[in-house]
TrEMBL record:
It is found in: Cytoplasm; Nucleus. One of its GO terms (cellular component) is nucleus. Pfam families: Proteasome (PF00227). Keywords: Cytoplasm, Nucleus, Proteasome. The lineage of its organism: Eukaryota, Viridiplantae, Streptophyta, Embryophyta, Tracheophyta. It comes from Spirodela intermedia. InterPro entries: Ntn_hydrolases_N, Proteasome_beta_3, Proteasome_bsu_CS, Proteasome_sua/b, Proteasome_suB-type. Coiled coil: none annotated. Gene3D superfamilies: Glutamine Phosphoribosylpyrophosphate, subunit 1, domain 1. One of its GO terms (biological process) is proteasome-mediated ubiquitin-dependent protein catabolic process. This is Proteasome subunit beta.
Amino acid sequence: MSIFEYNGSAVVAMVGKNCFAIASDRRLGVNLQTVATDFQRIFKIHDKLYIGLSGLATDVQTLHQRLVFRHKLYHLREERDMKPQTFASLVSAMLYEKRFGPYFCMPVIAGLGDDDVPFICTMDAIGAKELAKDFVVSGTASESLYGACESMYKPDMEPEELFETISQALLSSVDRDCLSGWGGYVVLVTPTEVQERTLKGRMD
């Protein structure tokens, strides 16, 4: 079994019209045994920038703490928040730095850049970036997430439609993956507000 499948995970980010949504499942497991049903995989860096971390749960928490620390240093020095593209480069550099003993995490980064243009990207465990204009996925449920997102995604969705689309894609995908599931957590970010919602899913 791959170390990336040890805890199970499903993370997806999707763009809409001047907005984005990022969602994850809530299951923390050890192989097929469920340990917790409220595990956090999506973290706020600042009001318009979020990161979702799939992979090994201990590395998820370690990497999150290091990223928050690096962003606070940047904020102290520059007196402004980091742009999503800059943050993606920071994450990529941090992962590549550890390439001989990597963090077993595959990040999904989503943010609003200049003029509220949404930016999303994902990368592998050693920081190779993959940019997209529509959606990115990560985790053990990524194959079924690709299929669900391909069939449901439409360009320039309004926030409510985007929320509905990403929620349905996530819920239908984790039902097809026994290592992720137990509901979902969605963050919807527009230029004026941030909405956090919890989804109820199949509890088996």
